[in-house]
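Reader question, answered in our methods column.
A reader sent in the components of a multi-part assembly and asked whether the whole thing could be modeled at once rather than chain by chain. We filled in our standard form and ran it. Here is what they sent:
COMPLEX SIZE: two components
ENTRIES:
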Amino acid sequence: MIDLNFIRENPEKIQKSSKDKGVDIDVNHILEIDKKHRELSLNVQKLREERNMLVSAIKGKPTSEQIEKGKELKAKLEKEENSLSAVWDELKTWLLKIPNPPKSDVKVGKDESENEIIKKVGTPKKFSFTPKDHLELGESLDIIDVKRAAKVSGSRFGYLKNEGALLEFALKQFAFEVLIKEGFIPVIPPVLIKKEIMDGLGYTQMGEEENIFSLDKDNLYLVGTSEQSIVPMFKDEFFKKEELPKRFVGFSTCFRREAGSYGKDTRGIFRVHQFDKVEMVSFVAENEDDKEHEYLLSLEEKLLKALEISYQVVRICTGDLGFNAARKYDIEVWIPSQNKYREITSASTTTDFQSRRLNIKYQDGNEKKYVNILNGTAFSMNRPIIAILENYQQKDGSVIIPKILQKYLHFEKITSKK
RNA sequence: GGAGGGGUCGCAUAGUGGCCGAGUGCGUACGCUUGGAAAGCGUAUAUGCCGCAAGGUAUCGCGGGUUCGAAUCCCGCCCCCUCCGCCA
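And here is the structure of the entire assembly that came back:
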């Protein structure tokens, strides 16, 4: 949520930044409603004052005159309060629709085609043979099974088996060790959250609701990332300034409906309805988020460098930025079978956008300020596994385990069982 | 799922229609006291909104209702605890 005062003072900025994100908002209309709301609010306050004065003048038994007066005030108040709350609802609805403005270093662009590649690391792996894709490898090594998953759960699900399952644990263990060393607090959060929490996070505003699994009978949502249940842990709470930055590393299963991606990445387990993910979440003081954003990105790079796979860092342009984020970096890894870089992690700063909605503050001297909240992927489980399979495949169809993960496993190589 | 108890200002508690935005204790801050500290004493100590300010207004889990007037009475919902049942 955007600070109403900021909108009053900078209507044209909000108008522009929303437009840059591809969100159509009529800021002047919002300001008109705001004006109406303020007038009504003043009326209501005065009527209440009158009512309170009358009431405090009554000691013991009221006279019939006083009762008449009270009834009259009550009727007036009820009317005014009704219009006030109607106008407030309208105002709030609009306010919640305004996206977080992008930071000044974010390129204005229409869609993902205008994202900026800001860094390339390593060189794309070359093979003396035609590399297989992850599904072909996964099936011949008997570590990925999407056929049976389709039978049991439908499309976009998969079984990870044998070394594939163990590989996930190794990745998780490695990420946790690195991040715990950095002072992150490990946490395994719930994956079902209430609707009001999902709204507060700003995930239901730009049509994303389509992408969220819900349990309507119980009025619960399944998280698409553990950030969604880690951030709201602190709803309506205050941090002490010394407690910041506060950093969490979470592990959870993530659920995505992937509506609107029909026909896209349908092969294998690149884009699935359910996957596990190690996620970083930071709470920092105001104006510290830029520094923290770079830090989270550097940790993501550290993890990928350890896997020794070529990647590039992309700064997402305004049109491709989500509702919440003021800036987002994606890291894309080299996928040999597709001959291109594909998204593997993502780090965003939401500035004070989520903390306003969720009322998460910190005490700075006598002042209470909104914290800045950031999130970033350490490892999702399916995509790093895909990257490892494809980049570490050998001519004979076997796959070498990256050195850094070998200490978590009892094998150095996955070979065909057929 | 069944039965009962409960959600009040950082924490713990008091408060069954007006004297309650709310007492007390703990905690915290400042001051006095002290060689220094502890103890003791004094003062202060929720948040949002409107206002230059004085002040006003709202908030006692959430939402509705009764009343001239609700933390307090009524209704619905949420959450927590205890016991029973079921169960990883």
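What stands out: Chain A is about 40% helix and 20% strand. The CA atoms of residues 65 and 71 of chain A lie 10 Å apart.
Send us your own complexes using the same form.
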